[in-house]
Amino acid sequence: MTDNNELHLEKINWDNMDxxxxxxxxxxxxxxxxxxxxxxxxxxxxxxxxxxxxxxxGIYLGKKPVGxxxxxxxxxxxxxxxxxxxxxxxxxxxxxxxxxxxxYQGNGYGRQAMKLALDFIRTFPxxxxxxxxxxxxxxxxxxxx
Length: 145
Hints:
With about 140 residues, the protein is of the alpha+beta class. About 30% of the residues lie in helices and about 25% in strands. The chain is built from 5 helices and 5 strands. The chain has helices at about 15-20, 35-50, 85-90, 110-120, 140-145; strands at about 5-10, 55-60, 65-75, 95-100, 130-135. It has a 5-stranded mixed beta sheet. The radius of gyration is 15 Å and the shape is globular. It starts with 6 loop residues before the first strand and ends with a helix.
């Protein structure tokens, strides 16, 4: 059983999907990350059309959803944009989407969730990899740091 104050990742399923979709970043951050709904649609298309491995998770504080993270393996390019170094992208993990709901920002949950995601990736759930990467909008100072 999960402690009410323990941050953890939960797989997205029929029971928690709506709560994850309702999570939102601040108005100023909306240009930095796709909505969780669009992210789940992208995951479905990449998995079914391209046969890639994608791992969408809700970030939970006890039983309360506070964020969303989506990890992919061997995805090639991020929606057809940079980076274009295909050699780097093959057999690597990609933190494709990452957000903490606006109501829960500033509490260290993002840093903790990133650690949990990296711990998950280190289990090599889709295969071994030498790299894990993420992309971010250049104007997003928090993601850059």
